[in-house]
Structures are given as structure tokens and as C-alpha cells.
Amino acid sequence: MHEAFSHITHRTAPLPDIPWIMAQTWSHVLFMHWPVNAVQLQRFLPEELTVDTYEGTAWIGLVTFQVQETKFRSLLPLQFLRPFPQLNIRTYVQHKGIPAVYFFSLDVTHLPSILGARTLYGLPFRKADMSFSSQTAYFFQSSCVTKEKREELDISYTPVSVGYIAEPGAFEHWTIERYALFTKRLNKLFLSCIHHTPWKLQEAKADIQFNTAASFLPRSLFIKEPIAHFADRKEAVFFPPQKA
User: Fold this and answer.
1) Along the chain (244 residues), what's the average pLDDT of each consecutive run of 10 residues?
2) Which SUPFAM superfamilies match (predicted)?
């Protein structure tokens, strides 16, 4: 049994009764969140999903990290996969009482990940030019061209507090402690679950040099500094999608 299953009481969605199929290790994770009008955001979601809100406000999240390791169940890590950066644009939804994540896009440099995730999960992965480095701070750059639009993100970030586990009811618990995601393909809604131990978070400072990511939203939403959190490392296991 994977060591993550020694912690299950913290889950905010039911644990699937099917075997997990893949594990990934993420590092240097940055969560950035901005408030957005729930009605405005709802029109970008599949009709079956309802935008979730925290104290009446919906949130858009930009999450950057390094994928350090990928392995399939009962197999050794895929040694030919070097670490690669990833940028996820997401929001938070509810369906049949399950709090979950909905991804607008997931950008990576790694083509096999794009093909695999699109095929298995129906997730909107995109190919992007990206770079990541670590010095006195973490530096992340991404550029993705789609539908004649260029979405770019250029940031540096650093943790600024001691580590802690978010308490239920706190904003960071509501946004980050989610263990399900919904996708829609071929006019059918699917639920996919993940599992990992609770996030150990630190408050973070994000210095945004340039941001045209999430181009479907007004740029005025991103004028304010985001609420930012950092996590050093997390290993997660993935379950196959099921019809919701």
C-alpha cells in the first residue's frame, strides 16, 4: 500500500474504491489566487458544474511547480523523464456535493505528458515553452501560443513563513485541500480523484513581472497581488476517471 494511504481522514472527497494507477512527485509548488465574480466565471464551466465560492466569492488559481518524478503502479520511476515545469490554471467547483477542481488549462514542456493526459483524462494540456530555476528565489517563465493568442507568465517567488497545515475553514484549506477534479469530453462528465497527505504550506511572496495567463478573463482581475502559498514537495497518486 502506498504510504499516502496512512492518512485519509483529511480528505474532502470520498476515496475511490478502485486501484490507483500513477504517482507523481511535485516540488517548489506555488499557489496564487485572485478573487473573481462567480457569475462571470460560471459561464466558462460545463453546465453540470456549479462554481464553488469561499464567503461568496469565486477564485481563479494559477499553480506552478516542477514535476520531479512520474511512475506507474508496480513499476519503477520512468528514468527517461527528466523534471519539467508545469503551469495549471484552475477554479473550484461542486457537483453532487463533491468539492473539486476544474482546470481551464495545464501547460507543460513535455509532449508525452500532454498526449497521455489528454488520452486518459481528457484534460486540456497544452505545449508551452517554459523554464524554471532556483537561486535565492524560485524563477518561473512560461509562454504558450493558442488560438492566435500568446499567454505568458514571468514570476519569481519565495516562501516567507514557517510551514503549517491549514485548518478546515481557512481559505487555503478550501482552495488547496481538494482531492477530485471534473472533466467533460464527448458530452459526458467524468470524475477523477487523487490522493496525498495533507499539504504543508508556507505563506509566499510572488513577484509577477508579466502575466497574460488565463486570457479568457479581464486583465483587471490580476492587478492586485495574489494570495500566495508555497509547498516544497508533495507525492500524489492518481486514480482513473469514472463517469460522474
Assistant:
1) 82 93 94 97 97 97 94 64 89 97 93 70 91 94 88 98 98 98 94 97 97 95 96 96 94
2) Acetoacetate decarboxylase-like (SSF160104)
| CA–CA–CA angle 98, 185, 146 (5° rounding) | 110
Query: In whole angstroms, how large is the CA radius of gyration of the chain?
Result: 17
Residue that the C-alpha cell 530555476 belongs to: 133
Residues 6+ apart with CB under 8 A from 146: 126
Coil vs helix vs strand at 170: coil
CB atoms within 10 A of CB 164: 13
**String of DSSP letters for 80-99:** T---EEEEEEEEEEEETTEE
80: how many CB neighbours lie within 10 A of its CB? 6
C-alpha cell at 162: 514557517
Alpha-carbon torsion 140, 206, 90, 240, what sign? Answer: positive
First to last CA, the chain: 26
Residues ≥6 apart with Cβ < 8 Å to 147: none
The structural domains of the chain, ordered by start, are 3-13+25-243 (2.40.400)
